[in-house]
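Support reply, case 0932

Customer input (verbatim):
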Amino acid sequence: MPQMNRLSIGPQIRTISVLVVHFLLLLFNKGQSKLIGLSQPIVATVGDDTVLPCRLEPAVDVAAKTLEWTRSNLNPRFVFVWRAGQDLVNTKHPSFRGRTSLFTDELKQGNISLKLSKVKLSDEGRYRCYIPEKNEESLVELVVGAAASPVISLAGIDRGKAGVVLQCESKGWYPEPELLWLDAEGKILSAGPTETIRGPDDLYTVSSRVTVEKRHSNNITCRVQQRNINQIRDTHIHVPDDFFDIQTSYSAAIVGFAVSLAVCILFILLLVFFLWKKNIIKSKRHQGDESDHAVKKNFSKSKTENLNSTKKEKGRELFMTNESVQMEDFNKNKAEKTSKQKQLMREEAANRVKNLIKELETKKKEVKKKEAELEQLQEENQNIEKNLQTLRKKLENKNTELQPRKASIAQYSRFTRHDYNKVQDPTDKSYQKKMEAEREVESLTKELETTEKQLQTKIEEFKEKQAEVQQLQEEIQRMETNNTELGTSGAAPARSSSLLLERQLQAEKQRREAAENSNRELNKTITELKTLLLAEQQRRIKETENLKNPENTIRELYNQLQTEIKSKEEAEKKIKELNWHLNTEKQRRIKAEQTIKELWREDEDWRYNNRSYYNHQPH
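Our regenerated output:
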């Protein structure tokens, strides 16, 4: 009986142990949920909405956790950030603002899928779904494509093959598609090379031509396809048999018309040649008749001239007496007319001088007004400079306030990821101070932008005023030239007024030069202000980037440390090599000294042994 009880208890214990192990595995798996995405790339067309899948298995509520969707080739790399139950819009890349969202109702079930609306070509790439607290990530590949239906048109007629030339064109594809011509049976037709054009919007346009003969089937298809995005677009066309018959009859009619036209041209040329020949013969006959008539006329003229010569000699004597009287009257009238013309010229010159003086006075008044406006602009520029100085002081003060914050960011590299999430908690006071500082920096940047806009408007007004002043100066120069012309004309009463005008013009020139100098100084100050503004903007952008992206600063510091470590390691290696070379040199020197000492000893021993020989040698 006890053996039977043991046998019956054994399988029960086994089942209980299996259940316990299974329960423990479930608990372990629940504690270690994993992010699951999609291994295959997601294909989306331009303008549509798509979903990038990402979920936790087993499901865990992530509504109160930090969730990140990023893309590595962006700056900033964040596509969507969810922190403390809120969408952080300011951290997003500008091209994704208003286009990315999560399914907030499904966050409790562990669904972190990203909805991307109105897909663009620039959205293509690899996206990373990441939970910092769990240090879990998943990658999703997005492939973006664009497709459009092709259009077939009649390009011309191939008379050599007695066929029709068709053209197919399709615009707005991405990536680059393939174009094919098919007959009614689905066989590929031999066509010309496809022309591919890439537009400024990175979309492709493809076109191709094919010659369709009568032996082909009448139904032709143009197919444009892109296999990577599984897009195929077809367009069909039917070419009737009557079209080919019309084409052949049309070609025969053209040949007949050409032959008849050539015959007509030859006939017209023969007619022209015949008429030309006839005209030449007529002209020769007419010239002979004219020569005979001229001889007869000359003979009759000689007779009449002899009779008239005697009469003319008598009339000349009477004419000479009358002519002398007429010449005296003519000279008197001429002198009177010249005197009247001179008086009229002087009066006109005086009137012109008066008009010019009036115009000069009006122009002087206008110049004074423009100078007053320029002075106002200078005062406004000075006020703007003062405002800029105050803004710079504010920025410097803000930088001094942010220096301890930068130091705390530099110490960020010592923190763990869990500590970073604590620091970035919106309820933390340091985080709130940081956000307030960022807001103040943004307000200062806005103020700087408004001042820049005001400066630009003032500069434009200044340029307009300069153009008006130049126009006035040109008019004054024109009037000067007119005065000089009037002075050279010889008008006596205008000389005194021209001298006054010259003096006034010299004074006007001096004023103009002073105005030009002031304009140059203003231009210099404006250029200096622009350079200062650009430098300030660059410094501000760097500071805002450092504040917004502490990870980037940490990475830069980390990279700097690594480079320093590498340089130190290289220096240590070089030092070791130098020490080794020094040691080898020392050993060589020691050996050389030892050999020298041994040689000295041997020499001394040899001399000592042979001293009797040296003593007996004659000196």
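We compared this against your earlier run and they match. Two observations from our side: Residues 241-410 form the longest helix (170 residues). Residues 151-239 form a domain with the Immunoglobulin-like fold (CATH 2.60.40.10). Please reopen the case if you see a mismatch on your end.
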